[in-house]
Amino acid sequence: MRIVDLATRPDLAEAALDLGDVGGQFIYAGASGKMISLDRFREQWARYFLIAVDDDDVPIARTLSVPLAYPAPDRAELPDHGWDEAVQWAAQDKIDGRAPNALCALEVVIDPQHRGKHLSSEMLKALKARAAETGLSRLIVSVRPIGKEDEPDTPMEEYAFRRRPDGLLADRWLRTHERLGAELIKICPFAVTISGSFADWKQWGNVDLVDGDNLFPGGIAPIIASAARGYGVYVEPNVWMEHPM
After folding, report:
1. ∠ Cα 75 76 79 (to 5°)
2. pLDDT class for 21, splitting at 50, 70, 90?
3. CA-CA distance, 7 to 240, in Å (whole number)?
4. Residue 23 binned pLDDT confidence (cut-offs 50, 70, 90)
5. Is the dihedral of CA 120, 25, 37, 100 positive or negative?
6. What are the beta bridge partners of residue 4?
7. How high is the pLDDT of residue 24?
8. Which of 24, 29, 58, 190 is exposed most, by the fewest CB atoms within 10 A?
9. Which residues are CB-contacts of 72 (< 8 A; sequence separation ≥ 6)?
10. Quick one: average pLDDT of 163-176?
11. Which CATH number goes with the domain that contains 23?
């Protein structure tokens, strides 16, 4: 396996994106999700789009991240709006010409045929290396606990801090970060917010909304829908973790 980036291998972009999505395509339907388009990564953050390829030069994993300024005078704490606000910070810093000092991982996606081979750990290690290579002193992650899909009604404060008898975090994706030395900083209760019409949700997640809470495949929280108002709102909590550099 080798790990390359979009800057040196732009030809691999489409194949890397074809590996799938984190949770489902609906994650990218919100305002922040739309900001991290392939064209923007090509133009702004190509060195932070990493792709693992096998011996046949076929993508088997990808990870996307954005550089941003944190901490900064107006950013003393990691935001409660997690993933969404990290994307906005990165965009604001580009517009304002503010130099970044941290890297925020947005996703790690592994080819289903190559899961269980510790590729996710290798991609996180590659992100840490890229952060160091580009003069960034922190790696932060708004982590979406993978097992939370099985317990969408469980409060994140209860779920995230569970530990196994050996003392490690119970959720396997949180545990992967912890084994690499990451510290669980805090819950970000509004990490991803997506709103849309009933028709939008049918398109994004094949969800037929009804009034009230709607559980659906790929979600780690319910969609709260109102037929009278004609919309559904999804608010996903995540967990902020920071890796040692």
Report:
1. 65
2. confident
3. 28
4. confident
5. negative
6. 51
7. 77
8. 58
9. 98, 101
10. 98
11. 3.40.630.30
The DSSP H or E segment spanning 90 is helix 82-96
Amino acid of residue 144: R
**Chain centre distance of CA 236:** 12
Which range marks the domain in which residue 101 is found? Answer: 2-190+238-243
Sign of the Cα torsion 224, 222, 21, 85 reads positive
In this model, does residue 160 exceed pLDDT 90?
Answer: yes
- Neighbour count for residue 11 (Cβ, 10 Å): 9
The Cα–Cα gap between 19 and 90 comes to: 25
Query: What is the phi/psi pair of residue 189, to 5°?
Result: -70, -20
pLDDT of 186 > 90? The answer is yes
Q: Domain for residue 14, yes or no?
A: yes
Which residues fall within 8 angstroms of residue 37, CB to CB, at 6 or more apart? none
pTM: 0.96
Tell whether 207 is covered by a domain: no
177 in Cβ contact with 63 (< 8 Å): no
Q: Taking Cα atoms as reference points, which of 131, 35, 128 lies closest to residue 84?
A: 35
Report pLDDT for 193. Answer: 97
Q: How many domains does the chain have?
A: 1
Model confidence at 25, pLDDT cuts 50, 70, 90, reads confident
Q: Is residue 199 part of a domain?
A: no
Half-sphere exposure at residue 59, Cβ-oriented, CA atoms within 13 angstroms: 25
Residue 59: the pLDDT is 98
